[in-house]
Design goal:
Number of helices: 12
Structural class: alpha/beta
Strand content: 5-15%
Oligomer: single chain
Bound molecules: nicotinamide-adenine-dinucleotide
Order of helices and strands: EHEHEHEHEHEEHEHHHHHH
């Protein structure tokens, strides 16, 4: 039987997941229902265009689905949970992708014994290259975890982790695509500055990021070792490395992750 997936919140991450899940053949648009705020006409239209059911009723989403994905901003979570509490009867699974909202908070706002998982996906799920991690709640069953794993593995990689990892994971891979996009933008700007057409510069930069990431994943080598292999003695790359160190590149990235991490913890 087809898996019925409901989304409460139909914004950027919900749309990435809907496209990813349907492209992967895990479910079909006619088995997906998603809700948005009634003021959010554009998200409701996108959902309809994707062939899914759009609604402004969160209880309808829960009633009509096997799994309900909570994909609203963290500050909206309490009012949504109060609304769906009585229709989210165990063993129906609640999959929360809301940044920073702890399992304890989720469980305490649901009916007793609620089956809950806390998931952090990222937007590359849209192109089946997502990085997802999840932690399971007290009453989530083996089957719930398997289902979560199979859903998110269909759109990339998916790891089950202790909940204590979730805030930093949010800062690394949940927010991470934004760091990568900024890097790609800067690299292509640099190419344009030195005479390359924008499109060519961006394609070369993106392929370089993809290839480097693939090398890390496929060889299992430490990135420092592979970085060393690109740097010939007295060559141009080591000059670039020197400049990145001088400009505080590593510290900037580590500080960025810390800022996102602290913000995530505030939300919890
Ligand atoms: P968004 O602003 O694009 O979408 C939010 C959606 O919630 C909109 O469709 C809005 O209409 C809807 N909404 C608002 N109030 C509602 C209500 N009362 N009932 C039902 N729907 C309501 O936000 P987003 O970027 O998709 O983020 C949503 C959640 O996903 C956040 O908690 C965020 O932390 C998490 N998340 C986002 C990303 C990402 O890359 N954007 C990645 C991982 C996790």
């Amino acid at each position: 039987m087809a898996l019925k997936v409901g989304f409460i919140g139909a914004g950027k991450i919900a749309q990435s997941l809907i496209k990813g899940f349907t492209n992967a053949g895990l479910t079909a648009p006619q088995h997906i229902i998603a809700s948005a705020s009634k003021n959010d006409v554009s998200d409701l239209e996108v959902i309809q265009k994707l062939g899914c059911t759009a609604t402004t009723k969160n209880t309808a989403v829960v009633r009509q689905s096997d799994i309900a994905v909570l994909a609203v901003k963290p500050n909206i979570v309490p009012e949504v949970l109060a609304e769906i509490r009585d229709v989210l009867e165990p063993p129906k699974l609640l999959v929360s992708v809301a940044m920073g909202i702890t399992l304890r908070k989720l469980e305490s706002s649901c009916l007793e014994n609620a089956h809950v998982v806390r998931v952090m996906p990222n937007t590359p799920c849209l192109v089946a290259t997502g990085a997802t991690a999840f932690a399971s709640g007290r009453y989530a069953s083996e089957e719930d975890c398997e289902l979560t794993k199979s859903l998110f593995s269909s759109v990339g990689t998916c790891y089950q982790v202790p909940e204590s990892y979730m805030d930093v994971i949010t800062a690394i891979s949940g927010s991470g695509p934004a760091y990568m996009f900024m890097t790609l933008e800067a690299l292509s700007d640099a190419g344009v500055r030195h005479g390359l057409p924008r499109n060519l510069a961006l394609k070369l930069a993106a392929q370089t990021m993809l290839g480097s990431a693939k090398m890390v994943l496929e060889t299992g080598q430490h990135p420092a070792v592979m970085k060393g292999e690109v740097c010939s003695p007295a060559g141009c790359t080591i000059d670039a490395m020197h400049m990145l160190e001088k400009e505080g590149f590593r510290a900037a990235l580590m500080n960025a992750v810390e800022a996102a991490y602290l913000r995530t913890r505030e939300a919890g």
